[in-house]
Each structure stands twice: as structure tokens, then as C-alpha cells.
Amino acid sequence: MQTRRNFLKALTLSASIAAIGMPMGAHAADTIKVGILHSLSGTMAISETALKNVALMTIEEINAKGGVMGKKLEPVVVDPASNWPLFAEKARQLISQDKVAAVFGCWTSVSRKSVNPVFKELNGLLFYPVQYEGEELEKNVFYTGAAPNQQAIPAVEYLMSEEGGGAKRFVLLGTDYVYPRTTNKILRAFLKSKGVAEADIMEEYTPFGHSDYQTIIANIKKFASAGKKTAVISTINGDSNVPFYKELGNAGLKATDVPVVAFSVGEEELRGVDTKPLVGHLAAWNYFMSVKNPENDAFIKKYKAWAKKNGVPNADTVVTNDPMEATYVGIYMWKQAVEKAKSTDTDKVIAALGGQTFKAPSGFTLTMDKTNHHLHKPVFIGEVRGDGQFDVVWKTKEPIRAQPWSPFIPGNEGKQGL
Description:
This protein is α/β, with parallel strands linked by helices. The protein folds into 2 domains: 11-146 and 293-378, Response regulator (Rossmann fold, 3-Layer(aba) Sandwich), CATH 3.40.50; 149-291 and 382-395, Response regulator (Rossmann fold, 3-Layer(aba) Sandwich), CATH 3.40.50.2300. The protein has 12 helices and 15 strands. Strand 12 and strand 13 form a beta hairpin. Helix 3 (45-64) runs parallel beside helix 11, helix 4 (84-97) packs parallel to helix 5 and helix 11 (322-341) crosses helix 12. The N and C termini lie far apart (60 Å). Mean pLDDT is 92; it is low at 1-28.
């Protein structure tokens, strides 16, 4: 009789566990799986590998402090290998098979657009940590990188200002995919609104992995010889930045003659380049490693120690950059939202994310907007130094609210949140 009673108790307990979706194995219930979806091979590995590294560092740091709701985070790392359709396949695997609570990943907009339908269909949660072109707002995505009004527009305004050199002609040079083309569509409309003539705008694109910039640099020099101050706005992505900047140096195109402002080049991409000929060229971001404040000092120290401990190649020279900071902030905001919601349920976490704040390595307290899933972010313009770091030459006084729908795109009037 006692044996039968115990058996019935066990059966009831099993049914209860199954009903609330808890795994039978106790060890599985003790962790929360999170996905890391970054290219660790192919043309984008130069940029994305560091984001995987900083995500693992952040997860390790959270686990050392007790995890999330008393459970350790368990990272599931996949490599979509700079293959845009493979991003969607790997995202589906993470959500359906690995049962991750959230995914931190993607760099290019084409990879993000590849996975968006998967996150919508399966009601997953993606944190996207890189500047992008806007013109998108997904319920299942939180954008911790910059919208155009938090990077591209302020950078061009700076170039046009007396302080930034008073540029009158502009070269829009990018990798041939959605982010550069849409950003440049916005910038063309912005420049025309400021009285810049069509003849004073040159636009050119190269494929992913492009390596021969000799002809393009020659064309830029010719375009700049018209007598008006010329600037280059670069949306080149991935490892193509290395040959572009090398050719810029070889051609002797100095920042005093034709300044280049980059939206996808930071400290990580410049590690493989002799930056001495590039001194004075610019990048626009929402964070630089060279920013001085206690939060950033701690962030850099932690990452350097993690890299050394985990055998990251050239660990002594690792750097931090803007998308790494955005990854770090995104993971902590997700943690805070889970703890507020007391659940990893996607809809509950989405509801809890709006209004979350975090004191970021940039030195600013960042806020997740309650209506548009974007961070309010400061803007920095940095000049390249001889050591591959950046001197901040201009910054906003406070974080700027994102405009996902650019006012320079017709039809966006009145568009705000979801």
C-alpha cells in the first residue's frame, strides 16, 4: 500500500512538472540558456568575434554575482559564418531546439532582417547591438546600437560645421547592402535640405570582402579637386575596412585634405592597420575606449583580464568598442527586465524592458525607450590617433532619443513607436 501511495505521489509530481513546463532533470532547471549569434568566420568575423567575447565575459560576470533569479546563465554560441540565410537557420535552432530565453547577436542589417521573421514567428527575443539604418521597429527586437539620428546625422552636421572643417562636397562610400544604401538615402535627403547640390554628392558601393580600393581612392581625389572642401562618409563594413584604410594611407589622402568619417570602424577594425597615416580621420559612435570615467576604466580592465584568462589571440592588445559596450548594456538590461518580470517569458520581459536604465561605460546613464525599443544614447565624434585609439573632439551633452523612422524619408511623418 505504501509503495502504491509513493508511486501515485511521484506520478502526480511528474504531471505537475510537465504541466508547468519544467524539465525533469534538476540540473536543466538550474540554468537559463541565452544565445550568442555572431559570425566567428567569414568577412564579418573581424568585427563580430569581439562581440561574442564580451557577451561571454558579461554572462560570466553575472553568474559570479549569483546569476539571474538565482539561476546561472548558460551561453549557447553558434557561428552563422557571415552567411545571411544561415543566420535565420541558427536563430531557429537557438529558439526551437536550444530553448534560449534571449539571443544577443547580428551585426549587418541583412543578417538582422534575415532573422526578424524567425523571432516574430517563434516569439523569441533579439538584442541587436550595432548602429543601423532605422526604418524598422519589431516587437521582438531591442536595438541597443544607434539609429541614424544618433550617429549619421550628427556626424554630417559636424563635418559641415566650422569646427568640423566646413565640408561642401560629400562622398558616400559603402558596402553594397541595406544599411549603407538606406543610410545614404537619408543622408542625401538631409544634405539636400541643407542646400548641397546633386553634383556635390558622389555615391559608390563595393561588395562584402572587397579589397582593391586603388581606383576608388583615385576617383575620390579627383572629385575632391573641384575646389570645395570634400569629406568622405564611410559605411564600409567588415574586413574591407583594412584595405580601404591602407589605400587611403598609400595615396597620401590626409584628414586635413579629405576627412573620412566612419560609422562601422572602431578600435577593433583599426588593430590590423598602421594608423599613423590616418591620424585625424574620424569615426562617429556612442562610445570610445578612450573615454575617461570609472565605469569605462572598470569595463576595460574586466575585458582585458577576461581575454587573457580565456586565451584570446593577442590578449595584451585587445580593445573595447561601441558595439561591445552595446552588447554589455543589452545583456544587463535583459537581466534587469527578467528580474522585474520574475520570468523569462518573452512577452513579460518585453513589457518590463521599457524604462530600464543602466550606467554605461560611456559615462552616461542609458534608458530603454518605453515605446520604440531603442536606447537613448550620447553621440561622440572621435579623431583617429597614431595608436589606433580616438580623441573625442565633439559630443552631445546628454543621451539622444532615437528616431527609428527618419523624418528625411517621405511617408514617415507621425511614425513613432510600435
